Amino acid sequence: MPGGDDFRSGAIMRYTATVSIDAAPQRVWDVLSAVESWPAWTPTVTAARRLDEGPLRVGSRTELRQPRQPSRVWTVTELAPGEFFDWTSGTPGLRLTAGHRLRPDGDGTVVTLDFAVRGALALLIRPVAGVIRDFVDTEARSLKTHCERHPRS
């Protein structure tokens, strides 16, 4: 970490951050997949409300509020429990995709967070690209800090 921009994926903007966390993969997954609890550990999410019940699954929807951003509903599009989930949000002409991947690394976990912007209106996002990069980096650091300070909470 910090991450890097990648424009080869067909996205107008793509940013990835990777962080090593001194916590077991199951612990990290438990924190990351409890999306309604994100405001407790990252300042980039001020409110999160699941729009369905049960464990996170393909089709799960969550409304997120973030500083300086409109409220958005995110829908899980891919998920392998304990390994990753991707979700998307957007409007006609603008598609936002965020990926959350983890893998074991010795006694710890490596987490990769990915954010991509696509669509005809994606160029409008360029002025806030720095904010997006800051959010992704902050989320990676905050996840690390939370999981390492609170190994069982």
From TrEMBL:
This is Polyketide cyclase / dehydrase and lipid transport. It comes from Saccharomonospora cyanea NA-134.
